[in-house]
Amino acid sequence: MIIRREQAADRPEILALIEAVFPEPVEARLLRELFASREYIPELSLVAESEGGEILGYVISTRGWVGETPAVGLGPLGVLPAYQKQGVGSALMHASIDAANGLGVPAIALLGSADYYPRFGFVPADSVGIISPDPSWGSLFMALPLEGFHSGVRGHFKYSEPFNNV
Ligand SMILES: CC(C)(COP(=O)(O)OP(=O)(O)OC[C@H]1O[C@@H](n2cnc3c(N)ncnc32)[C@H](O)[C@@H]1OP(=O)(O)O)[C@@H](O)C(=O)NCCC(=O)NCCS
Questions:
Q1: What is the overall mean pLDDT for the chain?
Q2: Ligand 1 and 21: CB distance under 6 A
Q3: Distance of alpha carbon 122 from alpha carbon 34, whole angstroms
Q4: Global confidence as pTM
Q5: Which atom of ligand 1 is nearest to the CA of 91?
Q6: What is the pLDDT of residues 34-81, one digit of tens each?
Q7: CB-ligand 1 contact for 78 (6 Å cutoff)
Q8: What residues does 123 pair with on adjacent strands?
Q9: Which one-letter DSSP state was computed for residue 124?
Q10: What distance in angstroms lies between residue 79's CA and the mean position of ligand 1's atoms?
Q11: Given a cut of 90, is residue 165 above it in pLDDT?
Q12: 86: CA distance to ligand 1 center in Å?
């Protein structure tokens, strides 16, 4: 398996994967809108591809803001059901974190499972001064401060516009 950047020709397969992973259509619709948005970042749209060329997993982060500071919001992340719990999601997460660090992004924020993301270093966002867009998310709104994080990265997190339609 390799992790590589998404190419435009991959999009039908990526969208089919997200539809297979998530029972509700909301994630696939969100992803279509993220692909078309100004906040799309090519370096942070990653596929896990098998030796045979099948896309097994996918992750995207798009531009968001902590107060006025550009950061990123991660999601959706998905791995084909037949390939889950074999390390594909972890490989995508590590590649995504490395790529964000390489771009100088100060922090990654996400809404997700408290059983999964802490293994990558994510902590409740408010514990590092990043305030959730929705207080009802509680500690499931998490953040990972990266190498470029500094004390000025504080305030309300704002996702790109497509997340407002979810
Ligand atoms: C969540 C998901 C992306 C994880 O990908 P994956 O390839 O299955 O994960 P990995 O194999 O890298 O798992 C690493 C560890 O996380 C655990 N894990 C996997 N999915 C998990 C989940 N949903 N919740 C909690 N732990 C999970 C694995 O058991 C494994 O634990 P171990 O290291 O102790 O054995 C994948 O299961 C998936 O697509 N799930 C459905 C969609 C989804 O929930 N997306 C994320 C939204 S928050």
A1: 97
A2: yes
A3: 23
A4: 0.96
A5: 12
A6: 999 999 999 999 999 999 999 999 999 999 999 999 999 999 999 999
A7: yes
A8: 143
A9: E
A10: 8
A11: no
A12: 9
